[in-house]
TrEMBL record, chain A:
Localization: Endomembrane system; Membrane
Species of origin: Tautonia sociabilis
Domain called NADH:quinone oxidoreductase/Mrp antiporter transmembrane: residue spans: 139-453
Protein name: NADH-quinone oxidoreductase subunit M
Membrane keyword on record: yes
Family according to the record: Belongs to the complex I subunit 4 family.
Length: 570, 752
């Protein structure tokens, strides 16, 4: 199985190289090659999903090296295990891994007819991106993770910059520089983590392995590292910020917050989404944003839990602002793609709220919500692509009553929107509900404000449905002639490849909504192992002292963290 | 796991419509007309299963329960709180079938003693649910039959029946749910069905506006409900309604209160609640908040003030939908949930519920007085009747409120279907040009008259008994808490108005002769001829038979066992259904004492006033008609325009909520584009400017330096060139000198 994991990660890379090296492929041949590669990758990752041991929290499918460490030695550093080519999947990574391989198939179908120029390069870039993303989720080594993390930028830069809309250059450069700037700070943070671990662990080991770092850092008892004081107890802001866990948290945070994106760092997103080709938007929203959430979970929450805990009130505030702000901004959009892009800001705010509330339930919900958001937003962007291909505009004010013309498309769009608006019975709800329930026990007021985002979420999505799907038929370009009568020439019905791209996403939207248990069963143990390292409330930190107090006599971090906080009278 | 076979019966009754929906939606093209048969067959089988379940429940629970409220009659007021406290031991728990399965469980294994979040899906069928099942499936089946004729010829006929099946599944699921979480799930699902059916004729912009409005207004209430759910889960660790009810019923705070409510002077008081064997505690103020939150959801769904604005607009949907969803079943779900979750609500919340109901019923009744659209009259009347139910629950008349829910479902469904039948014949909803339809549509006129008599509260018709029960509860409450006399004034005046506007509508529709558009001073709608009733004729059998069948329960379901309209004091006056309900009440009912006779007197009085005024104003005979409605309207003056404009709720909400929200959205988009992106762009521009500066420095300073060095090297090169003499001898000389120097150097280094 370990070999299969490596093969799955590298297969798209090989496919992409083959596309680049093969002489003179036209777009028809190229898309079949790309489809075959992504389908094979999907098949392999489904085999991995099948082979995954439910209930085991640790990373699975990892190579056991000769020296007892995971993976193959790659670069020897000092006397320790060094930088290693170590791949493995735990429950969280597995879900995102499978999501990536599924969305890649959808992206190929999204590009099926729209990409005709320079198609082999285009598909090669898509496949390179897939390797980058799969490798990123499967990495068990910090350096390997970072390499894949940065590698994803390159194909995406070219995808947006070469195949995007009219403002593609500005979009790609903004996106590239912005995320690069953030991730360099993240790199600093990661190095700092390695150094801290090396300096304080006994015995001293220089390790780059993510599980070992996580474990080792949580064992460090040195007061400098383990004791972190909340802002309210600090003498000054600088004293607060210069605490190691806080400082490293912020360094790590910089890159991931831009990726997610959290509220003030989100402006690259609408631009990049709107300018990217459909497949680019699907992958950006579907997977790339999840890299930020995944990074938060893997590094911020798991390695600097104290820092997260003292910063949690501020982070929750930012998330809630993002939820409301994104939703309000989405409400004002007339471009469908922009609307969906801003809805991502709002929805990713929910995910961040779940993560930074630091309860098992909310983090669990946030992880599932990452999958859900990938599916629903991926489907929404694919739907927008279907629309754009036919009408070459995304202005909602210029269309209406599309149900009449494309009934199947209308069905898809309604289902995806309802999934996104967290209608029970569909996937958004089963993710959002635990997020709200979990964060409610920790930050009741913030959660109530976040819940208003649900109203707004329904508002902009249903407004969008009303404008696009309902009402009398109005088609852009056809307004001048033939008002009112059916004139279906020029607007082809939904094609087989569009159905093939959307159907699996919609099926999953329904399946997760109806029966989320198998998904949660795979995610929960891994989330538990991270949540178990969270600090006990009151021990060196406190959140909202008037709202939450810990019960006496329970001082083990595990017991305290999973327990819902007792709310007492003011 | 399921504890009785009847549970599976009900699971089947819930799931069959879902299966029908799936079959229909997948075979939309394939089946076309047959979808109606599939849908009707499905709901009819659910009806049969519900009937079997009802019979089985009747037998299993030992037949008709003894009148519960009468049993407490003799006890002194001091004794009744003790009875309330002894609820869990003394009173045999009412029969209920339940079953639970794990759906999601988060955090297994981390804490063996306490599951952080386990969400079961489960059903719980108690006496109330048994009755609700029977009511919903019965009405739904008739409406399916009715729709076959009503919707005939519609291009989306198959889709309509598919949606109806989905709705039936969601509604039955809502009734059967054992946990408030699951209630919430179905709550949203019925909302979606309602959304799809209101916007069924989506080509018309106003219809999809109405659909959006319904969904979003409901969502506002749902957020409150989510907050309530969060509070309950945080405090009590469960969503199970029966567990929470059992725990809260036994709270000691009930004993200090004459009405058996949870009251506390100190908001910080903490109640200890036994939930499924473990003791949890909940502070009083959180209990209040949780109750308000759950109630907020019910306010949205049951169209109570201030969220009632969506229901009148929801009449944009096809009339069978209005009858089923927006009159009989879905809108009653809020009342149902308040009833189901009754012990959760503390004294403060119950008071809020009572006043919300009171205000709603009054507001809506005033608006219904002046509507010229007969479907809107019925819509506002529905809002008003839902207010009656809420008020009843709020004042502690648990059985009364739910009794009215059941009776209202039948007569309001009948009235809506009758209105649909009229529309089918005349193609307008406007009252003004119509009239005299009694001769052309005798069945519709007769059945609607029965419905009108029932809703107005004429003795012998079901509505009389349920309204009477509500007034009795209100009188009892007001006699205990005289400060809240308004809670009696509002329903009494509301009942009078109900009788007035219903008879007004019936008179205008069916008596006299057709007035025609021009006589009413209007332009005909959609190019109709002047007299819309000219070609009217009675509808076909698939419309009239459901009307006839519905007329039977409309009359009968309120009857007491002794069929005694001549309710003399001392004789058992209670309707069968009310007794059945109160035996299943989650809290023991309060003895009403003399309130009953007062209530009967009051309801007769208001009936006479309301019907009398309607006769005086609208009766066709000139000898009876003494009041000119136009002059009455003129007397009302400003009030009249207030009523006609529905108290300006839509305008106020538009100005205070919708427009600001959109404006803020636009402002946020502007901020995003200009400010936030501006900052980022600014940073980028600063970077670019810095690099320009750098380039300038580079060109002026660094480059000069480099050029200088280059120049110097060039000069040196020139010097060097002179050394390149080309003469071998000079080269050898230099070479040998170098060699000597090098050797000396090496020597020095080695020796040292």
């Amino acid at each position: 199985m370990a070999t299969l994991l490596v093969v799955t990660v590298l297969l798209p890379l090989l496919g992409g190289l083959a596309l680049l090296l093969a002489p003179k492929l036209d777009h028809k041949a190229a898309r079949w090659v790309a489809l075959a590669t992504t389908l094979a990758t999907l098949a392999f990752s489904l085999v991995l999903v099948g082979a995954f041991q439910v209930g085991d929290a640790s990373a699975q499918f990892a190579f056991e090296g000769a020296d007892g460490h995971a993976g193959l030695p790659w670069v020897a550093v000092g006397s320790g295990p060094g930088i290693r080519f170590a791949l493995g999947l735990d429950g969280v990574a597995l879900s995102l891994f499978a999501l990536t391989s599924l969305l890649l198939v959808t992206s190929v179908f999204c590009s099926w007819s729209s990409i005709t120029e320079r198609a082999p390069t285009y598909y090669a870039l898509l496949l390179f991106l897939e390797t980058g993303l799969l490798g990123l989720f499967a990495s068990l080594d910090v350096v390997l993770f970072y390499i894949f993390f940065e590698f994803t930028l390159i194909p995406l830069f070219f995808l947006v910059g070469l195949y995007g809309g009219p403002e593609r250059r500005r979009a790609s450069i903004t996106f590239f520089l912005y995320t690069l700037a953030g991730s360099l700070l993240t790199l600093l943070g990661v190095i700092a983590l390695i150094v801290v671990h090396y300096r304080f662990s006994t015995p001293q080991v220089l390790t780059f392995s993510i599980p070992e770092l996580t474990e080792g850092l949580s064992r460090i008892t040195s007061a400098d590292w383990a004791f972190t004081r909340p802002l309210a107890d600090s003498f000054s802001l600088s004293q607060f910020l210069l605490q190691p866990q806080v400082f490293i948290f912020l360094l790590l945070f910089a890159g991931f917050a831009i990726k997610v994106p959290l509220f003030p760092f989100h402006t690259w997103l609408p631009l990049a989404h709107v300018e990217a080709p459909t497949a680019g938007s699907v992958l950006l929203a579907g997977v790339l944003l999840k890299v930020g959430g995944y990074g938060f979970l893997r590094f911020n929450l798991a390695m600097t839990p104290m820092g997260t805990a003292v910063l949690a009130p501020m982070l929750v505030a930012i998330s809630v602002i993002g939820i409301i702000y994104g939703a309000l901004t989405a409400l004002a959009q007339t471009d469908v793609k922009r609307l969906v892009a801003y809805s991502s800001v709002s929805h990713m705010g929910f995910i961040a709220l779940g993560l930074f509330s630091m309860t098992l339930v909310s983090v669990d919900g946030a992880v599932l919500q990452m999958i859900n958001h990938g599916l629903t937003t991926g489907a929404l962007f694919a739907c927008v692509g279907v629309l754009y291909e036919r009408y070459h505009t995304r202005e909602m004010d210029r269309m209406g009553g599309i149900w009449k013309r494309l009934p199947l498309f209308a069905f898809f769009l309604i289902l995806a929107s309802m999934g996104s608006a967290a209608v029970p019975g569909l996937n958004g709800f089963v993710g959002e509900f635990p997020i709200l329930a979990g964060s409610f026990s920790r930050f009741p007021r913030a959660t109530v404000v976040a819940a208003i985002g649900i109203i707004l979420g329904a508002y902009y999505l249903f407004l969008m449905l009303q404008k696009v799907i309902f009402g009398p038929l109005r088609e852009p370009g056809g307004e001048g002639h033939g008002h009112g009568h059916d004139d279906s020439a020029g607007v082809p019905p939904v094609q087989w490849y569009e159905i093939a791209g959307l159907a699996p996403l919609l099926a999953l939207i329904v399946i997760i909504g109806l029966y989320p248990k198998p998904f949660y069963d795979r995610i929960t143990p891994s989330v538990e192992s991270i949540v178990a390292r969270f600090p006990a409330e009151g021990a060196g930190m406190s959140t909202e002292p008037n709202q939450t107090v810990s019960a006496p006599g329970e001082d083990s971090p595990r017991a305290l963290l999973a327990r819902s906080a007792q709310v007492t009278a003011p | 796991m399921m504890d009785a076979w009847q549970g599976w019966l009900y699971v089947a009754a819930v799931v069959i419509p879902l299966a029908a929906f799936v079959v229909q939606i997948l075979g939309l093209r394939l089946f076309r007309k047959q979808t109606a048969l599939i849908a009707t067959g499905a709901i009819a089988s659910s009806l049969i299963l519900s009937a079997i379940g009802f019979g089985s429940y009747f037998i299993a629970s030992g037949g008709m329960p003894s009148p519960h409220a009468e049993g407490h009659e003799g006890e002194s007021p001091e004794a009744s709180p003790a009875a309330a406290g002894a609820f869990s031991e003394g009173r045999a728990a009412p029969l209920a079938w339940s079953g639970n399965w794990t759906w999601v469980s988060l955090g297994r294994g981390l804490l063996p003693d306490r599951q952080p979040l386990a969400i079961p899906i489960g059903i719980r069928i108690d006496a109330l649910a048994v009755l609700m099942f029977l009511m919903v499936t019965f009405i739904a089946t008739l409406i399916h039959v009715y729709s076959m004729e009503y919707m005939e010829g519609d291009p989306r006929y198959p889709r309509f029946f598919a949606y109806l099946s989905l709705f039936c599944f969601s509604m039955l699921g809502l009734v059967a749910s054992s946990s408030v979480f699951l209630v919430f799930v179905f709550w949203e699902l019925v909302g979606i069905c309602s959304y799809l059916l209101i916007g069924f004729w989506y080509e018309d912009r106003s219809n999809s506006d109405a659909a959006n409005k319904a969904f979003i207004v409901n969502r506002i209430g749902d957020v409150g409900m989510l907050v309530g759910l969060g509070l309950l889960w945080t405090q009590l660790g469960t969503f199970d309604i029966a567990e929470i009810n059992a725990g809260l019923s036994a709270v000691e705070a009930r004993q200090g209160d004459a009405l058996g409510r949870i009251t506390s002077e100190d908001p910080g008081a903490v109640w200890n609640v036994m939930i499924g064997g473990t003791e949890r505690s909940i502070p009083h103020w959180i209990l209040v908040l949780a109750g308000l939150g759950i109630f907020a959801g019910c306010v949205g769904k049951s169209a109570q003030f201030p969220l009632h604005v969506w229901l009148p607009d929801a009449m944009a949907g096809p009339t069978p939908v209005s009858a089923l969803i927006h009159a009989a079943t879905m809108v009653a779900a809020g009342v149902y949930l308040v009833g189901r979750f009754f012990p959760l609500f503390s004294a403060e919340v119950l008071l809020v519920i009572a006043y919300t109901g009171g205000i709603t019923l009054f507001l809506a009744a005033t608006i219904a007085l002046v509507q010229v659209d007969y479907k809107k009259v019925l819509a506002y009347s529905t809002v008003s009747q839902l207010g009656f139910m809420m008020l009843a629950l709020g004042v502690g008349g648990w059985a009364a409120g739910l009794f009215h829910l059941l009776t209202h479902a039948f007569f309001k469904a009948l009235l809506f279907l009758g209105a649909g039948s009229v529309h089918h014949a005349v193609h307008t909803y406007d009252l003004r040009p119509l009239g005299g339809l009694r001769r052309k549509m005798p069945v519709t006129a007769a059945t609607m008259l029965i419905g009108t008599l029932a809703i107005s509260g004429v003795p012998l018709f079901s509505g009389f008994y349920s309204k009477d029960a509500i007034l009795a509860s209100a009188i009892h409450f007001v006699s205990e808490r005289p400060g809240h006399a308004l809670l009696l004034v509002l329903p009494a005046s509301g009942a009078a108005m109900t009788a007035f506007y219903m008879f007004r509508m019936w008179f205008l529709l069916f008596t006299g002769s057709s007035r025609g558009w021009s006589a009413a001073g209007l332009a005909p709608e959609h190019g109709q001829r002047d007299d819309p009733a000219a070609l009217a004729h009675e509808s076909g059998p698939r419309i009239t038979w459901p009307l006839r069948i519905l007329a039977v329960p409309t009359v009968m379901i309120g009857w007491p066992l002794t069929i005694l309209p001549l309710a003399v004091a001392g004789l058992p006056f209670h309707p069968v259904l009310e007794d059945w309900l109160s035996s299943a009440a989650p809290l023991p009912a309060q003895p009403l004492g003399s309130a009953q006779s007062w209530a009967a007197a009051t309801s007769l009085l208001v009936l006479v006033v309301g019907v009398g005024l309607a006769f005086l104003a609208y009766h066709p005979s000139k000898t009876i008609r003494r009041i000119d409605p136009a002059r009455m309207a003129a007397h009302l003056g400003g009030l009249y325009s207030l009523f006609v404009n529905s108290w300006y709720f839509d305008e106020v909400y538009q100005a205070l909520v919708v427009r600001p929200c959109l404006a803020i959205g636009r402002r946020a988009a502007w901020v995003d584009r200009v400010v936030i992106d501006g900052i980022i762009d600014g940073l980028a521009a600063i970077t670019v400017a810095l690099s320009r500066l750098d380039r300038a420095i580079d060109a002026s300073v660094v480059d000069r330096l480099v050029s200088l060095v280059a120049g110097m090297i060039y000069v040196l090169g020139g010097v060097g060139r002179r050394l390149q003499t080309g003469r071998l001898r000079s080269y050898l000389m230099v070479l040998s000198i170098a060699f000597v120097l090098l050797s000396v150097g090496v020597l020095v280094w080695v020796v040292r």
